[in-house]
Specification:
23 strands; Neuraminidase; mainly beta; 52% strand; 293 residues; 4-stranded antiparallel sheet; globular
Length: 293
């Protein structure tokens, strides 16, 4: 089984990166900036003023009003791999970083204003995706004994708790805004599909049923809608989310049901790995790509 959970920070993918926002109701896309290297995974800050993204292994802040870009100091975490999330109160950032010693991904946290990071998960590999609304727990994908499952751990570290144990890949865990559920994607039904479970791991429920490979469910702050990215069946293996593919951004009701396509673009890995909803639940941020000639 090939699983693309080993991003290589700083690798030249031979693309230009286009940082964009979209009004999900009108479909209007706004290009904010084009970069000649790899930019990935924008978050929208709680105050609505900035986007936080990964660029060549480091974390940056983009000011929406003026376009100013500032690097956030993250100490030893200079090989971040696009799995980063912001705390519910907006004061902190947690990130997955490929440590120098063995190149494996571990979770660290620090202040969003910058600071020395604190190691949360000494066991590797661990890839962060969710921060609970009460600010107390991380949800992440981790490989243990050759299998990728969903785990949680207190934000200050400690004993991790395994929530899933199925054959195949479980990935992308993210809390609903009310903290009741964790959304994730899984190949347990052959293709990669979106699932939802209780925050303690019970009652897993399949939420998508189409013939695509669906990844990274992001619930809007008002809890009403879910944005996600889809690869066409046959374009990729179900357990792989590579870059440089024709993909779709989709939107569905948080209670399930039909989806609609809100954008078709060249992207994949790095486009929408983390929750990128604006605080008003009307816009999302994402990255599309363009091949260099």
């Amino acid at each position: 089984m090939q699983v693309l959970k080993t991003p290589r920070p700083g690798e030249d993918r031979g693309v230009y990166s286009i940082l964009e926002t979209m009004d999900v109701d009108s479909g209007k896309r706004t290009v904010l900036r084009e970069f000649d290297d790899t930019v990935e995974a924008p978050n929208w800050t709680q105050d609505g003023q900035y986007l936080i993204f990964n660029r060549n292994g480091r974390i940056y802040r983009y000011e929406l009003a003026g376009g100013t870009i500032t690097e956030i100091y993250t100490g030893v975490c200079t090989a971040c791999n696009n799995d980063h999330v912001l705390s519910p109160d907006g004061s902190s950032i947690a990130m997955s970083h490929n440590t120098v010693e063995d190149g494996q991904s571990r979770i660290y946290k620090t202040l969003l204003s910058g600071g020395e990071p604190v190691l949360v998960t000494p066991i590797a590999p661990s890839y962060l995706h969710g921060w609970s609304p009460d600010g107390r727990t991380f949800a992440y994908c981790a490989e243990r004994n050759g299998q990728f499952d969903i785990y949680t751990i207190p934000v200050w570290g400690g004993r991790e708790k395994q929530l899933t144990d199925t054959k195949g890949l479980d990935d992308g865990p993210e809390y609903s805004p009310d903290g009741r559920h964790i959304w994730f994607n899984s190949t347990r039904s052959s293709l990669m599909q979106l699932w939802r479970m209780e925050a303690d791991g019970s009652n897993p429920t399949r939420m998508t049923f189409d013939e695509s490979n669906n990844w990274f469910a992001h619930v809007s702050p008002d809890g009403r809608r879910v944005a996600f990215i889809s690869y066409k069946k046959g374009d990729v293996e179900p357990d792989n989310h590579p870059p440089n593919r024709n993909v779709q951004l989709r939107l569905m009701n948080a209670n399930g049901g039909d989806f609609r396509v809100i954008a078709e673009l060249f992207g994949g890995q790095g486009t929408i790995n983390v929750n990128s909803w604006a605080p008003d639940s009307r816009q999302i941020a994402f990255v599309s790509y363009r091949l260099k000639k």
